[in-house]
Write a structure and sequence with these properties.
mainly alpha; carboxypeptidase; metallocarboxypeptidase activity; protease; 2 domains
Length: about 375
Amino acid sequence: MELSQALEQLAALQTKLYAYQCASSSLYLDSVTVAPRDTAQGRGVALGVLAGEQHKLLTAPAVGQLLDFLDQHAGELNQLQRRQMEELGRNYRQLQRIPADEYMAYAQLTNEASDVWHKAKENNDFASFQPVLERLVAFSRKFAGYYDPDKAPYDALLGEYERGVDMAYLDRFFAAVREKLVPVIHAIGKKEQPDDSFLFRHYPVEAQRKFSDYLMEVLGLDRSHCAIGETEHPFTLEFNNKDVRITTNYDPHNVASSMYSVIHEGGHAKYELNIRDDVQYTCLSGGVSMGVHESQSRFYENLIGRSLPFIQAIFPRMREFFPAQLSDVTAEQFYRAVNKAQPSLIRIEADELTYCLHIMVRYEIEKQLIGGTLEVKDVPETWNR
């Protein structure tokens, strides 16, 4: 086989994998935005089949032969070609260790879990979600063994989200952050807090939708390449650097909730829309890591979105969208209100300081769940403690 033929096969393989991922992502996006309420079962069947086809495609013997050939000619590859070979090789070896039926079952389970979670959240009913979460945790433990049998299960899972990160590193990192952060939070808690009551007046959802459109314009998000939808939990989903979707959730009694969701998800979208063209439809497309991705969204949300110059720039228009609610509020008052530091039970609505504590608490709970020292049924008690 000529090297040029091998590179053509490499490109074709990645394009097929991209197509399967697009199909799965489309089904997920539909499920959490506009799909009828009780449609999870059929969608789960489709997602299971798609996962099975992805598994079959990437674990085929021909793929192993292709990767071996490319590895033998690694010196003739450019940087992008080598990285594609390495990344696909990693994925190939990983999937080889995961039975196809388990891979398909997991895809179906995550679809079911999303549906059950929405209903459980709506009814504040953890017990109804518990059996599904127990199955998810069991799958995660099993998959961790497939990913890297020589590592502790949670270390193996962490590596899937942030390469090179493990519990030892995060224990040190979070301890250092906690040491500096907690005294600051306590000190601020003793100070007089700014009035933020006007944030919780009645803000009509339709006016918030129009305000979101304005925010997207301010952020420079091209609506011919970036659409906004509504869902229970805001997120960003990219198909490629010409097609990115963001979502938000509107609370008629909390204007800051959706405002900062749009800015946060807009940061994710800006990142995806500016990824280079020559890695599209390959395994290198999308964000470099979860940490880098979140750094972009939090940068827009906090360093830009909560800054006084930004608030001063958008506030005149904001008053036009909400004249009755903000007629007695100045830009400086709004700026102080959206920077108020106080604990919140909802991570995405937490302020810049206490947000970090949410991550630390979740880390400790996850570590215990995957490590087997905490049972799912005891999670609510642990969280409340």
